[in-house]
Prior knowledge:
By secondary structure, chain A is an alpha/beta fold. Chain A is 23% helix and 25% strand. In chain B, helix 3 packs antiparallel against helix 7, helix 3 runs antiparallel to helix 8 and helix 6 runs parallel beside helix 9. Classes of the chains: A alpha/beta, B mainly alpha. At the A-B interface, strand 5, helix 2 and helix 4 of A face helix 1 and helix 4 of B.
Amino acid sequence: MPRQEAQRMRLDGVGRRYGLRGPWVLREVRLDVPAGALLRIEGTNGSGKSTLLRLLAGIDRPTTGRITGRPRTAYVPERFPAALPFTAAGYLAHLGRVHGLRTPEAADRAAEWLARFGAAGHARTPLAELSKGTSQKVAVAQALLAEPELLVLDEAWTGLDPAARDTLDRAVAERVAAGGTVVFVDHDPRRLAGAASARYRVADGRLLPRERGTAAEPADGVDAGAGPRTVVEAEGPPGSPPPSGLPGAPDLAPGPGNSLRLTVATVHSDALLRALLTARPPWHIRAVAADEPPGPGTPGTPGTPAPGEAPRP
Amino acid sequence: MTASLPALVRYQAALLVGSYRWLPPLLAYAAFLAIGVQTGGPILDAYGYAAGGLLPVSVWLARICATNEPPAARSCVAAAAGPGRAHLAALLAAVGAALVLALAGAAFVALLSDPHSTGHRVAVPVLPATGAGLLTALVCLLLGIGIGALCSPPVLRRPGWGVPVGLIAALLVLVLGASPANAALRGMITGSERGTVTVPWLSLAVAVPLASAATALACALGGRRG
Lengths: 313, 226
């Protein structure tokens, strides 16, 4: 995968206002966007989250300050318009070419992503005839098929059905595991909970860092730090340490026998398994199970089970 | 950036074709030619007439292409390619559409007109006349695209202002003596009276940097809209 290792993306003193005398929407934003990071941006409506995402995606340019080291970027808007005179597959082929793919490659990846989101049957449907949810799947596929180094998601989950939301969660984890960076905004505080490597809050036009998984500071009444976690029991070659740079930065603990227990946010579990199985030499997987929710991590939701831990009907 | 300009232009062209918004300018230009180009009329006059009509039609096409994409779709493309290149591709699609009209108009003139001067006394060679006619059309096309780029978002963002401002600008560029389009058209008309072909090289040499500057300004503002 081509990656620009030398330059990492940076926002330096970035401010944005609209019009010559408009109020500052964002001011003095300083942000490092490292490769392989999953950044969550929070903030109330109208706080400037979307403006920040548009600056990150390169759609909008800052009024002051500089953005350097932009990698290959893709963006998913919250609502994707149906008013385009293409079929779903035709639109994705166009966007794949715009992202620099050759036509057959673009068509293959378009078909693959539509299939993953359960929209393969709509490939030949004109965009104007698609439902809102299926349009959103096309918008998401448009960004994912390019395997971008920077993926910017502005409430991209809105309008997707639950299965497609899970697919997008896993696709995000895959992007991160492959060394890409994902920046997202979502109104659901449990979205990718526990998987984000950093959280920021936009307030009064400023970007403020937030500690990871702070139970004392619940977001919108729900603790966003703890999400569903998965335990992988794996056994490596005798005496060898676990591979470095495992997806999702799993917590390590000794397991039964010679095995190792790796606990990771559930969205990263596929990527973690893939990394273990394809390591050189490969690891043996003994068991995969859902983790118990961390006890003190859910003070904001008394009486309700932790998200993702409720038994499926 | 890996995004390729040909892919962007292809996307914008497909968008224009599929949207059918090219149909009104095409019909308007066809009606304009049908009214003004007469069977057996002097060929240089007819080429000048066809080129003059192409200018406001090019303004129209540039406005159509600059506003053809829903904002969310434009954001997706702008993230992949940069807003400036996305806008450049839209304007290049408009150039392509206007070129098609220019060639069709020239073919129509060549078929119907009489290769003689206005008084039908002096014979005018068809090939050099067609060359001069196409170059005059190109001058008008480039200036029209430039005006269209300046009278559309992101340069002129006020809704409702683009069309009147664009039309007035197109009219002024056709009428004012200092404009390269006016000079090229005058060359065709006086050439038709004398039976001599005047190739508008100088007008083209002025129109190309003007149109390029207007396009560059519009594309540079591409990331600063809103």
